[in-house]
């Protein structure tokens, strides 16, 4: 019976970079963030299982759609190690991301609609404009427009809408 040296099946960081289309520094970054895992040989060289190529592909797709790295990391942590994920596991992963993407799309559509209303309004009146920020009320919560992409965290119903009255 032949024994297989695991390092011969493993990929170097350069091979992973070439085959995945990402820079070596990106691979190191992904590893530092817990998105992928590797190990060191006795000669202190990094090695990666071939499955890491699939994980990097998933990371790249998720990043392109705007999924935060922390969410990607949490989801990848739940995947099996030592084998490529199954079609069903991919569907489950994708379904969770789909819900997040649907929310992001809805938020962007609301933002677009608010901007359309504002641009078409022409009121130019701070007293009447729903987009105003009188007396820098948001300044108590943040130094800038930090709530544009996450109004619910600041207690706002929608982007550009004032806080609901209790």
From TrEMBL:
Entry's SMART domains? HTH_MERR
Q: Name one GO molecular function term.
A: 2 iron, 2 sulfur cluster binding
The segment(s) forming the HTH merR-type domain are 10-78
Q: Name one Pfam family in it.
A: MerR
Keyword annotations: 2Fe-2S, DNA-binding, Iron, Iron-sulfur, Metal-binding, Transcription, Transcription regulation
Q: Which GO terms describe its biological process?
A: response to oxidative stress
Q: Which NCBIfam families match?
A: SoxR
Q: What is this protein called?
A: Redox-sensitive transcriptional activator SoxR
Q: What is the lineage of its organism?
A: Bacteria, Pseudomonadati, Pseudomonadota, Betaproteobacteria, Burkholderiales
Which gene name belongs to this protein? soxR
